Amino acid sequence: MSFSKLELTEPILKAVNLCGYTAPTPVQEKAIPKALAGHDLIATAQTGTGKTAAFIIPALQRLSKPSALTKRSKGPRVLVLTPTRELASQVTDAVRTYGRFLRIRSGVILGGMPYFEQQRLLSQPVDLIVATPGRLIDHMERGRIDFSRLEVLILDEADRMLDMGFSDAVDTIAAATPASRQTLLFTATMDNAMIKLAQRLLKDPVRVEIASKKITVEAIEQRIHAADDMQHKNKMLNRLISDSAMTRAIIFSGTKKNADQLARELVSRGHAAAALHGDMPQSARNRTILNMRSGKIRLLVATDVAARGLDVNGITHVINYDLPKNAEDYVHRIGRTGRAGATGVAISFASSKEVDFLHQIERFIGQVIPQQVIPGLEPARPLRRADSTNRPGTASVKRWHRGSAGSRNGQNSSPKNSFASRNDNRRNGDSRFNREEKKFVKRDGGKFSDFRLSSRPAREGRWA
Ligand code: AMP
């Protein structure tokens, strides 16, 4: 099927063609026609399936025609709710990309950003708003949002929104919008809470289900170590790499700078280590990979650039010094071990700041990664793990033994009864809702953006 069969308007088709997409992805092929026909929709699709375009394209198509409402209102015609700032900015990018030839006005409403610009955005006619629930409610309570002409409500990663305690907020927002609206719900997982949410908010929805990508991580033994801080991570790393069963390992770092620094420290302590990241010239990268293949390098400290496409056999361990921000990257990273039928070990450090990434990863791979502690290096604080109903198991903490780092061929060399298990699930209270908003702000420190989409110059004063 080609995009031209989807009956999209010319400006959208042109924008999609510019992206170089040859055909709609399965979720786009199924969801776009239903959404264009005005149906409410529940789409089960993970990130990476092209889901953002699956809801943004029909929303933009609607905005390419004038509002059917004659009454004067300046509120948004489309509202996209996302659980996080990161996702909000991805959606915003998609609006820019697919709407580049349309004349629409859109903006974002995110927690932690100055109110002034958001008030300015809301004081003028706006077509599409991407928002996180907390701040949006704040504006609603101050009477700054008029939802009377809202036509489409989109919930992106609705399961994550529920996980993060936004259920009441989503209900409040939906209740403030016209009952005649179209609602599109996108979620990676479908559980009871999600079914109930859909029953509350959607009318006679069409289900679109995209089969989860089969992720073959069965041959890889995975575990998590809770980390208090970088120092704690360094101590755990030192202990792990002293294991002779670790014959060839990749240590993933979140930044190029840290990858360089960590590699230098490991070399200074006498380890055969090197860094691999995107700032290195290609020739240096090739040399490092060759040295890894030949066994000259035992510990490769890499950023995600090495996760995709790096083909080195015999990698016994992958260590996520920092968790990846993207769940798919986790699978790519750990896939560097356990290649060609061999088993491998994937060890991840997770600090309290990385708990959200951990949840995302666990949802994506459909399993809870067991937690272990290294004797003598127990974390000062337990890892805060949300008690999520859609996760397939419970998280427990086990004691790590030197031998268990080198478990090969699927056998764990630690005797089962030597593990001290402790349930580590924690409930998150309602206050999390506000805490999350604050946390995202701290983590990102991004800027509020109020942008205009137009291929033509703006008329003075109109959209400024
Ligand atoms: P998403 O699942 O929305 O996060 O999208 C994942 C990636 O797929 C994004 O980088 C999109 O640019 C890309 N993408 C979306 N639709 C298509 C398509 N039809 N063909 C190829 N890539 C696409």
Describe what this molecule looks like in 3D.
- The chain is of the alpha/beta class and 464 residues long.
- It has two domains: 3-211, Rossmann fold (3-Layer(aba) Sandwich), CATH 3.40.50; 214-428, Rossmann fold (3-Layer(aba) Sandwich), CATH 3.40.50.
- The chain is built from 15 helices and 19 strands.
- The strands form four sheets. The protein has an eight-stranded mixed beta sheet, sandwiched between helices. A six-stranded parallel beta sheet has the order 8-13-12-9-11-10, with helices on both faces. The protein has a three-stranded mixed beta sheet with strand order 14-16-17, with no helix packed on it.
- α5 (115-123) links the parallel β3 and β4 (128-131).
- The structure holds adenosine monophosphate.
- The site of adenosine monophosphate has 11 residues, from α3.
